[in-house]
Design brief:
CATH superfamily: Transposase IS200-like
CATH topology: Alpha-Beta Plaits
CATH class: Alpha Beta
Oligomer: single chain
Radius of gyration: 18 Å
Number of helices: 4
Helix content: 25-40%
Strand content: 15-25%
């Protein structure tokens, strides 16, 4: 276990990390350089305000974004996604009203997303560790 990654709070130690990916509605290529820069700033603000961390993010092909996020176990991953997509979509439409011409219906993001938990130890190592815990 890498102790450098552990976060401390009053009742627990934790290391909850997520790889999140979601795309624009209809995979429209609207995340231009200017939009991307503002989007990244907005996502960092959202994370700080809602109590989780974003340590890396990248827009790819102007139509989807990869985010590496982490948070306290009481903050659900779907809450993180909901906050990021909802708030960023609203703020981007306000800052860039021209997006509404390309994305009708008032939605910036596709309703679905991909999420994967990321740990510092592989699944096999954890399974072997648990199997070795059998009482003799």
């Amino acid at each position: 276990m890498n102790k450098d990654n552990l976060k401390h709070c009053r009742t627990c130690l934790y290391n909850c990390n997520y790889h999140i990916v979601f795309s624009t509605k209809y995979r429209k290529k609207v995340l231009t350089r200017e939009v991307e820069e503002y989007l990244k700033d907005v996502i960092m603000e959202i994370a700080k305000e809602k109590g989780f961390e974003v340590s890396a993010m990248e827009v790819v092909e102007e139509d989807h974004i990869h985010i590496f996020a982490s948070g306290h176990p009481k903050i659900s991953p779907c809450y993180m996604v909901k906050m990021i997509k909802g708030i960023s979509g609203r703020k981007l439409f306000i800052k860039f009203p021209c997006l509404k011409n390309k994305l009708w219906g008032g939605h910036l993001w596709n309703p679905s997303y991909y999420i994967e938990t990321i740990g510092s130890i592989s699944e096999d190592v954890i399974k072997r560790y648990i199997e070795k815990q059998v009482k003799k």
